[in-house]
Amino acid sequence: MKALILAGGFATRLRPLSCTRPKILFPIVNKPLLQYTYERLAKHGIDEVILAVSYQTEIAIKQRRIPKCGLTVKYSRDPPKMPLGSGGPIKKAQKLLGMQGPFLVLNGDIFADINYTELLKEHDEQKAVATIALTEVEDPSRYGVAQLARDGCIVKFVEKPRKEEAPSNLINAGAYVLSPKIFNYIPAGKTVSIEREIFTKLAGEDKLYGHVHKNLWMDIGKPKDYLEINRVMLKSRANQQETIIHAKAKVKHPVALDKGTSIGEKSVIGPNVVLGRNVAIGNDVRIHDSVVLPETTISDSSQIEEAIIGEGVFIGKAAKIKTGCILGDHAKIGDKVTLAAGVSVCPAKEVNESVLASKNIC
After folding, report:
1. Which residues are tagged catalytic?
2. Which pLDDT tens digit goes with each residue over 281-290?
3. Predicted TM-score of the model (pTM)
């Protein structure tokens, strides 16, 4: 059994962090999203994974050397300067996927505990061309929405409708089983949206089915979503590895501290904080509800609340990083600088004066 992971997106809503890493490598409680996906696929008997990627994403994944969990991993690269959308990469990977039987397709930016075994079984029983995992959300307007008949057939599929026009609250969960017949529906060498162009057509032909998924599901496409999945996973995966914590520091669980982390005197870390590898926290620092990526230094008396701090960032003494701030990799924030709520700082940018209104610093 094979799985195709769509990992060629640009993750524009996660900039500036996605300027220096693909979304599929964003860490969740100090482990890349892709590693969680590998683990789940291996658990459900998948043998081979094909990653549909850009050239830059392929290089980034190979550099990380993520454990493959016994899977054979291959790459299908999008053409330079020609994104193929969500359907084009499936057609391009046709030779790697083969015509022998159904295969899984996963959106690379989804974190979900989907039972792929059940999804595959239901697809086989219905003899469908495509079977979509569906999950229920309060506001379906950001997603593809399905109207499901009693026999599991999707009678209507609408991509990103207005909330009041959505046929249901069941949305595309970003995991599909596709039969090789799907290749007949996707033109070669073109940008194709499988949601807007292919699923809508299959629904009209009664060849599209849905499988309702009721376990954990989250789209990490927005910063607040990324912080939320870390908060959720901290409840079950909070840990403290080889760290140095001053006797007078305080750690309010849940937190996750990776190897090499140090926390200075009178600092208060947590709750809901993830500190990556070799993060250095000075004295009298306050951090809560935040994710700090590896190799970052946070100097004495600084405060960070509900923010995402990139890799290799330096934050000076008595700095204040407010709710919703995002600091790109290797950014430098000077002493006593305050960043107002919602400020984002591009990679390697140096900020030495306070920014008191939400804006992007490039």
Report:
1. 160
2. 999 999 999 9
3. 0.89
